[in-house]
Amino acid sequence: MMRLPRFRCAVVCAVLLLAGCASGSGGSIYAPAGGRPQAPEPPLTDGVAKPADEPQVWRKSEQPAEDKTQQQTAVPGYRESGDQMPAAAAGLVKEADALMAQGDGAAAITRLERAQRIAPRSAAVYFKLSEAYVMTGQFGSAEQFTLKGLSLAGRDERLQRSGWLLLADIRRARGNVAGAQQAESRAAQL
Amino acid sequence: MKNTDKTRKPSRTKTAPRKRRAAAQSRRKSFWRIFLRLALLGLVLLAGWMVYLDALVTSRFEGRRFEVPSRVYARPLELYSGAPVSAAALEQELTLAGFHKGDGSRSGSYQRSGGRFLISSRGFDFPDGKEPRRHLALSIAGDQVQNLKVVKGPDSAIVRLEPAQIGGIYPAHQEDRVLVQLDKLPELLPAALMAVEDRSFYNHHGIAPLSIARAMLANIRAGGIVQGGSTLTQQLVKNFFLTREQTLLRKGNEALMSLLLELHYSKSDILETYLNEVYLGQAGTRSIHGFGLASQFYFAEALEDLLPHQLALLVGMVKGPSYYNPRRHPQRATDRRNLVLDQMQQAGLLGEADAQRARSLPLGVSDKASFSQNRYPAYIDLVRRHLARDYKEEDLRSEGLRVFTTLNPAMQVAAEKAVIETLPRLGDKALESALVVTAKDSGEVLALVGGRDPRYAGFNRALDASRQIGSLVKPFVYLAALSQPQHYTLITPLQDTRFTLKFENGTVWQPKNYDGLERGQVPLHQALSKSYNLPVVRVGLDIGLAEVKSTLQAFGARPAISDYPSMLLGAVAMTPVDVAQIFQGLATSGFNTPLRTIREVTDAGGEPLSRYSLQVNQVADPAAVHLLQYAMQETMQEGTGRSAYNTVPRALGLAGKTGTTDDGRDAWFAGFSGDLLAVVWVGRDDNGATSLTGASGALPVWSKFMAQVPQNSFTPVVPDGVQYHWVNVQQQALTDKQCENARLMPFITGSEPAQTITCAGALPQKIRGWFEGLFQ
Q1: Which CA distances in Å does B554 have to A63, A147, B625?
Q2: What is the distance in angstroms between the CA of the first residue and the CA of the last residue of chain B?
């Protein structure tokens, strides 16, 4: 059986955890309830500065605040990378690491699912889940979680590379050599 | 003949005494014979009866298989710095989980002052490990947990509170109980019980003749029944095996069975069974058995945490749970409790000062039953349907399973409020509604409302109302198109003009826009955000119905989808839960995530039986989905969903789609934020016409829900292979961001417009700059 040592993921994911913490947009997109709805208020003018405690999000579409032609209404938002992992989720990932070190992949998955509920937009959590599924021999799930992680890696090349390499390992383990090579070449392009 | 008779008479008189004696002797003999035979028969019968009773007693007691209902729990609240929860929601959650207001240091109590909380958790055996008891201090600001500190207990950055019990799956006889073990009980409980009910429990053999005599004497003196002489064993037998009728035969059976029970089993076995069996109250149709559940039912606390005055009340209630019901007859219950406290003092279980203090305390009963059986009927309905896939109904009703669901009580409250408060404002009293809320990235069903009266356990529209989805289908048509970047981008101009389709059988179909207008050419993103009908049919016919159908199916659409082009306008029937399932993939960049209501099921002892893990399955190119998400965000900002921001804070980024069917029979809204996906349906059960649209009927419910819940904005991560460009949509060209009609839009790499125009016209900026420089 394909055992974990043949995978780069253990190392890769250790890096990922750090990468996950270091990456992210650096801002919060949290909107507390009970904020005043927009409609009754006068429209914001370009000169109005956001309050200091309001979440600042790097959204390209909101960047050119000085642009007089920009529409007054908000525009669709996006960002370049997923969330940072909050300390609580990172703690659970650490517990999962310890469980995996003891060979208990199933217990690690329960910790990681808790972490995923706290940090559902963190690529690193999904890569970790992938690692745990590799451990339990469920390569199909492992591949899917890697793909999910990659969809959240955004422009973070380190995360991207780690994800593609992980995917290459998993695909090779599943006998998908062409898919593995494709993933490796994606990693190499970064 | 006469003579003969006469002559015979004397001889008869002579022989008569002898004969009578002989006859008497023979009668006596036969009497004894019959008596002996009867006695023997009686003995045999008695022996047989004893054997029968013995078998009954041992078989019932041996297995000692109480039918314990399955308990259904909400998801536990996880507290950590940054956890999204408002102070009000936290307090609500604590109440639901059976916490009571107090000093925050006694187990199961909390103290709140403004946004600051002190919480003393009871600890809980979760399937993945034990959560210890802790004293916590935290504050809530901006709807987030801050400064979480473990004051007492093992330190941790994340703490799970015990989950609220949201329901149970009960045996047919509706008995409910929480099993307790003798060695884990407060010692005072059995001691108090014996002091009051059976002082010689450890010395008798099942019956206590002296007690019976004493009771009889007391009853004769009082001229009625004032005292019972039944031992705990007899009471258990009565509860366990016999009916409540008061006949001599039953009394006899009771005595015999008590003797047999004592013969076979130890005192502690009998006592433990008694503590779990005794009837202690009624909650609707559900009967409360045993001290474990009674403690939760009357005090909302674990038995091990009860104080002497609370234990005394429960012990006192054994005599008559209905007569001494502390909620209905508090004075009667207080008198009885104090009597028990007196007896406990006499028996040396309490010192005088302690007893005195206990007598002076209020009953300490919780305001209402700690949970009601039918609080969330629609949600429990879905849980039961999921359980039915893997478990037998009889096991669910009797094996004491623990079912850990994904229900989020705060979301459920918000969802119910949204439906209850919005529906009456829509005018039509016959309108019904359903609301499904899921966690966007995990597929966990967080809340479910099955009708305008969420407490009513009837027709569950969220699961069973299969209705046409109208324009909710459009995102899937456009997704199928955007997956072909060589043919379609967000700015591809589409014809918004009428056309007629003629089928082979001669029928004709002429789709129309909702407002009946035609707009000539509209870009794809606008055709979706404004939900125009004519362009979507054209696009659907262009890429092929099969392609649209397979897209819908890849996203988890289960119902049969028709092969007629009317399918492109949503002539597909789905339930709100089905819709939530297919939108899950749109909300998560093309990853289908099966909806789940259950995380784990364990047996009564906490051993895991099944886990329902998170699964993801990529069914679409994240790049194409990202483009679609752009248009679905635009729907909320400029399109049919924009009135959401009359209710929802502008800071909350959203994406969604309205849906309306012919004559307003169905009003739909499906949309998502960064964390949540919610689907609302509003319509009539008789499928009648209404004056509503998705925007005027379903969106108000959806917005009302979203506005109550603190959450993250929807700001999707740009996937690999997507780039944003400033474009002039009308001119189909790249442009500068400062130009008047410039719009920043995502394109799958390589599909962006090839030509560039400037603000002034078609000349590139470089050349214009050169010209401008020339004339300056």
Answers
A1: 36, 17, 13
A2: 174
Could you tell me which of B66, B651, B658 has the C-alpha nearest to residue A32? Answer: B651
Shortest CA distance to B579 belongs to which of B657, B652, B655? Answer: B657
Per DSSP, the three-state class of B769 is helix
Residue with tokens 């999962």: A96
Query: B674 with B711: CB under 8 angstroms?
Result: yes
Rounded CA separation A99/A108 (Å) = 6
* Mean pLDDT calculated for residue range B516-540: 96
Q: Which of B282, B288, B291 is CA-nearest to residue B197?
A: B291
pTM of this structure: 0.81
User: With a cut of 0.90, is the ipTM above it?
Assistant: no
CA B322 to chain centroid, in Å, comes to 29
From B157, B651, B739, residue closest to A87, measured CB to CB: B157
Kindly calculate the radius of gyration of chain A based on its CA atoms and give it in whole angstroms: 20
Q: Which amino acid is at B698?
A: A
- Interface test mutation site (partner A, options B130, B614, B647, max chain A beta carbons within 10 A): B614
Would you call B441 and A120 a contact, using CB atoms and an 8 Å cutoff? yes
Helix (H, G, I), strand (E, B) or coil at B433: strand
- A160: enclosing H helix or E strand: helix A157-173
Nearest-CB residue to A33 (from B618, B709, B737)? B709
CA–CA distances in Å: residue B223 to residues B215, B226, B248, B323: 12, 9, 20, 21
Active site residues of B: 197, 471
Q: Could you tell me if A96 and A115 are in contact, meaning their C-beta atoms sit under 8 angstroms apart?
A: yes
Backbone angles phi, psi at B236, to 5 degrees: -65, -45
Q: Which amino acid is at A71?
A: Q
Give per-residue pLDDT as tens, B442-477: 999 999 999 999 988 789 999 999 999 999 999 999
Name residues whose C-beta falls within 8 Å of residue B342's C-beta, 6 or more positions apart in sequence: B355
Q: Quick one: tokens of B368? A: 């209402």
What is the widest separation between alpha-carbon atoms in chain A?
65
**Site of tokens 């509209």:** B522
**At B719, is the secondary structure helix, strand, or coil?**
coil
- Separation CA A22–CA A83 (nearest Å): 10
Structure confidence at residue A47 (pLDDT): 34
CB contact under 8 A, B709 and A121: no
How far is CA B544 from each of CA B482, B513, B537, B539, rounded to the nearest angstrom?
Answer: 13, 21, 10, 8
Q: What share of chain B is helix, strand, coil (3-state, %, to 5)?
A: 45, 20, 35
CA B136 to each of CA B254, B301, B304: distance values in angstroms, whole numbers, following the listed order: 52, 18, 21
Instruction: Tell how many helices (H) and how many strands (E) occur in chain B.
Output: 23, 34
Beta partners for residue A139, in sequence order: none
